[in-house]
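Worked example

This section walks through a single chain of length 89. The input is the sequence exactly as stored; nothing has been trimmed or padded.
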Amino acid sequence: MNRQELIKAVAQDCNLTSVTVKRAIISAFKVIENAVLSSSDKVQIADFGTFKLRVNKPRKGINPVTGVAINIPGSETLAFRPAKRKKQG
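Given that input, the structure is written out below as tokens.
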């Protein structure tokens, strides 16, 4: 499912316009991203999952074309860990 399909499904389910749902979804993701990246806080959504900042340490690598050793800088990225699924039945 892509973003447009998600917007359409939520709009139909909630009986809202696609424009309203699109704004809400984009806003929700921006808020989550800003909360995690600006304060290194994690955002937990019950029964869905947790968004958090993942920090990758700098490391050494090898250029596959030339075989020369290179330094790969550390980086920060937004990571998502899904919640454990509840058992059914």
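What to look for: The mean pLDDT is 91.
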